[in-house]
Specification:
It is a single chain. About 60% of the residues lie in helices and about 0% in strands. It starts with a helix and ends in a 34-residue tail after the last helix.
Length: about 140
C-alpha cells in the first residue's frame, strides 16, 4: 500500500516536471521563434567567461609578483619596484623540458647494451627491383 502511494507520488512529480518543461519550451518558442535570442545569450555568456578568465590570470601574475617582492623584503634584500620578475619563454621551455625528462627517467634502470656491427654487403634485398610488384603475381 505504502509502496503504491510512493510510486504514484513520484509519477505525479515526474509528470508535473515534464509538464513544466513543456510549458516553458512553448513559452520560449513564442518569445524567440528563430533562436536568435538564445544565440546572442550564448555568445554573451562565453565572452563574459573569457573576460573573467583574462582578468583572473592578469591579476594572478600581479599577486604572485607582489608576493615575491614581499618575501624578498622580509629576507632583507633590497627590491626595486620597477624590477620585473617575469621569466622569459626560453627559461620556461627549459624548465618544462627538464621536468619532462626527469619524470620520464623515474622508472627502473635497465642495463641495455647496444652493439652496432657494420657489415658491408654489396647486395641488399631491400632495394632489389625483382621484388617490386609491377607485374601481377601468378
Amino acid at each position: 500500500m505504502l509502496l503504491n502511494e510512493i510510486l504514484q507520488l513520484t509519477q505525479t512529480v515526474t509528470d508535473t516536471s515534464i509538464v513544466k518543461v513543456h510549458r516553458n519550451s512553448e513559452l520560449f518558442m513564442k518569445i524567440d521563434p528563430y533562436g536568435v535570442g538564445m544565440t546572442v545569450i550564448g555568445y554573451v555568456i562565453v565572452f563574459i567567461a573569457l573576460l573573467l578568465l583574462y582578468i583572473v590570470f592578469y591579476n594572478l601574475t600581479k599577486l604572485i609578483t607582489g608576493n615575491i617582492k614581499r618575501t624578498l623584503k622580509k629576507e632583507g634584500q633590497e627590491v626595486d619596484d620597477k624590477k620585473s620578475f617575469e621569466i622569459s619563454g626560453e627559461v620556461n621551455a627549459a624548465i618544462a623540458a627538464a621536468l619532462y625528462l626527469y619524470y620520464n627517467e623515474l622508472h627502473d634502470q635497465e642495463n641495455t647494451v647496444l652493439t652496432i656491427n657494420r657489415v658491408s654487403r654489396a647486395y641488399s634485398p631491400w632495394s632489389s627491383k625483382i621484388y617490386s610488384l609491377r607485374q601481377y603475381p601468378r
